[in-house]
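Protein in question filed below.

…
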Amino acid sequence: MSEFEDIEQESTEEFLSEESAAEDIHKTIHLSGMYENWFLDYASYVILERAVPDLKDGLKPVQRRILHAMKNLDDGRYNKVANIIGNTMQFHPHGDASIGDALVQLGQKDLLIDMQGNWGNVLTGDSAAAPRYIEARLSKFAGEVVFNSKTTSWKASYDGRNKEPVVLPVKFPLLLAQGVEGIAVGLASKILPHNFIELIDASIKILKNKEFELFPDFLTGGYTDVSKYNDGLRGGRIRVRAKISQLNNKTLAINEIPFGTTTVNLIDSIVSANEKGKIKIKKIDDNTAENVEIIIQLSPNVSPDQTIDALYAFTNCEVSISPNSCIIDDGKPRFIGVREILKTSTENTVALLKKELEIRKQELLEQWHFSSLEKIFIEKRIYRKIEECETWQAVIDTIDKGLKPYKKLFHREVTEDDIVRLTEIKIKRISKYNAFKADDLIKGIELEIDEVNNHLEHLIDYAVNYFRQIKKKYSKGKERKTEIRNFDTIEATRVAAASQKLYVNREEGFAGTSLRKDEFVGDCSDIDDIIVFRADGTFIVTKVVSKVFVGKDVLHIAVYKKNDDRTIYNLIYRDGRRGPTRVKRFAATGVMRDKEYDVTKGTDGSKILYFTCNPNGEAEVVKVILKPKTKLKKLSFEFDFSDLAIKGKGSQGNILNKHSVKAIVKREEGVSTLGARDIWYDETVRRLNTDERGAYVGAFKSDEKLLTIQKSGYYKLMNYDLSNHFAEDMILIEKFIPKKIFSVIYFESSSEMFYLKRFQAETENNINKQIEFIGDNPENYMHSYSLDWLPQVKILFDTAANNKEIPDLILNVEEFIGIKSSKAKGKRVTAKAIKKIEFIDPLPYEEFEDEIEETQDEVEVQLEVKEPIKEVPQESETIIEEKIKKQETEQKEKPKSPPDKTDDPDSQMELF
């Protein structure tokens, strides 16, 4: 072949090679296949290996690997977190940052990890210090319930160099105790934490086949409404509120915050709401350290009760949480409720306990087996028979032959390994062998085997006792922190601060917050609605905006209160251009926004002649002046609106007069024609209502008050506004009767004596203020109280402390002490040692006049008792001493009666 031919062949081969490469480049690869394989592999990995916890141990993979690494390092001392992270990286392939974050979150849950150093603060959101500065070790609780190498299944780590647990043998509902949150591909998991003690109690109920309830509990405390919890499944929702208390009329304090919030973002939300005009505050201070303390200073003339509701409505003081209980079960994601999770966890705990008992039983049987072999081998001197054996097999056969008569005594066959182990016994042990100790050892093993067998036969009882022991050892400080309540619905428009100014141009028909040059109507908020009545008899309800056309000839404009049936409109209108004059009273309820309504018959040319808005249903008297007309003798007359019934807004009204009206003037101011307002108190939401929910408090008129008494020694007078908030320790709520007398027994700590006082509530400048009546010493406490007119107190004396027997004494409170100021100290009940003191049935009294006389100035209840209330001189404290001496004298004169043989422990019960 010539040189030219060789070059041609090489060129041809090169061309074919390039053509083949081009075909490879343009080869079609279907995207659907890539998506199906690669994306699903990734999604499966994220779900199973990163974001969602396993049902059996309640841990995500990173959490399980952290705990496994900590167990490997565990020697009872603290380890640097950086060291823990480094050891965990043997098992977890995702870097130190993810491991460190997961470790800090585990530690902040305060259950499995004992921490040292600055681990951050879940209340303030402060982050933990760097891993090199903080330390950790496993808690005693974790060591007892999480680990057991004998019952753990193992698998190779991601690089095959180490072994890690498939799941940890957790004998506790850890998933529900800690809670978890994770976002995977296509699904998410959010399981809320539950109370440690309640989980144990519920597990015990499951084992006893009893019903149980399970609701979330948060380390941050606060209140929660779990009425829509839905067992933690998708579609459920809980509401969590901060704990807000009223320090005084100008100051609020937040002491507990909702789960998932911090003091920083909570304060940011409050400041934002203030800037938007939803609330009015002057100052906010964050004094949070170990416990939350946020102090809110209110602006002048701002209602603290309304501000509390506004904080719940417009800030993070109330948050809504939607749980989504998703777990991994047998390698697949499942959505199951918290009740089923707890049942599965309890069953898993019972199975693990059974497995541990079976392993222990097998260990004891092996121990008994070899101890018995050793005893026979030494006591029967079988070891001497091997002295003449020349080969190893001969030694084995000789020992086996020597044991043959005793093999039927064993639980299993004697194997060659058992015989080899016997040959390893040292001569020193044989020479010092003590048969009595060996018998005791075997007997102890047999007793423990019997105990284990008993536990296996009564496995449920054993599991119940296990849970009880866990509760006894580790439940201290784990009481419920979040109080379960039913929340009332807060209407935002009712609680929003009136931070805007509303103006109206009546002639042009515009209203809004930007018309500052026009007529000022009043304060409002930017979420309020306004109601506008026009001269043609139409009205409309619309939203507050900067400027809106509401119609010309505006008669009345005001902020509209939804469902307000106590605001009554009195109206006189002309029906058409020449029709009769009609009169009506109505409430504007059941209206739709931006829909026009007509309060007349709708006849063309109708016109409103007289209009008033009455917030409490007042009905005035008007004088109607008619136009002069031939044969019309009476040109004026008076009409009292109280004679007219209140009807709906669509009613036509009654005919007032068929003649033309010249003018209508008001003659007398009206009084309310509405009856007293019935008020109930609902203990579940701790709010007043008019819907007949809870206990009936009373029927209230305009200026009547509520009385509340607190266990901490305060009383408070307040109006009956439905937005009122009440103290946590309130023990009485009732309608206030001005003449009612308080009788109070309280313990005065400085003298360590009981004092008695009587007083009446002081109304002047004391409305909505907490009035103290047991002194300002924080160690004082109220023992009991009575609102009876003639109360009595029974005193039982402490015989041992008084060194003599003193008869019981019944004290007439009205004779003992007169009515003083609520600030008065009162009188010491007695200098003798008291075992028990209590109010008993009061003395009878006659209700001479039990009707309330109403005037414009006061509401007064007149009650006539058998004897008038009188001031008792200071020396009256000696009454008790005189009665005691008199009773002692009478006791001595009586023949001695046999001693009381009753040893009722309740009769010797101490009061406190």
Summary: The two ends are 122 Å apart (CA to CA). The longest helix spans residues 338-379.
